[in-house]
Amino acid sequence: MNVENSAARHINATSGRKDKLVDDIKSVVTDAEEMLRKARTSSAEGYSAIRAELEDRLASSIARLQEVQAQMKSRARQAARVTDDYVHDNPWKSMSYVAIAGLVVGLLLTRRR
After folding, report:
1. Residues 7 and 76 sit within 8 Å (Cβ to Cβ)
2. Taking a C-beta distance cutoff of 8 angstroms, is the pair 39, 47 a contact?
3. How far apart are the C-alpha atoms of 99 and 63, rounded to whole Å?
4. How confident is the model over 37-85, as pLDDT tens digits?
5. Residues 4, 97 contacting (CB under 8 angstroms)
6. Distances from the Cα of 6 to the Cαs of 53, 68, 92, in angstroms?
7. Which residues contact 106 (CB under 8 A, 6 or more apart)?
8. Predicted structure pTM score
């Protein structure tokens, strides 16, 4: 069950990163809304400062998104490798899983009609 444990760890790690990413995006949106409110009441110099701050925050958010994207790509490749190894090590077991999944899907599709 090593593959199952590995998959569970990947899912937990990915969901934790996804939650952090969503929180980061919400924070950027909230900050942007706050800065837009400030920009409405500020002078041209204040507007320039607010715009620069917003650009900095957006740049840092984009950098974080790119980091998360790279990590998720790496994890997906690793999961694909683990799956490939499992299928090569256990071909009959893998075929039985596929056959059962096909049977279940077939039954569900015929029930709908």
Report:
1. no
2. yes
3. 43
4. 777 777 777 777 777 877 887 788 788 888 888 888 998 999 999 989 9
5. no
6. 41, 19, 21
7. none
8. 0.52
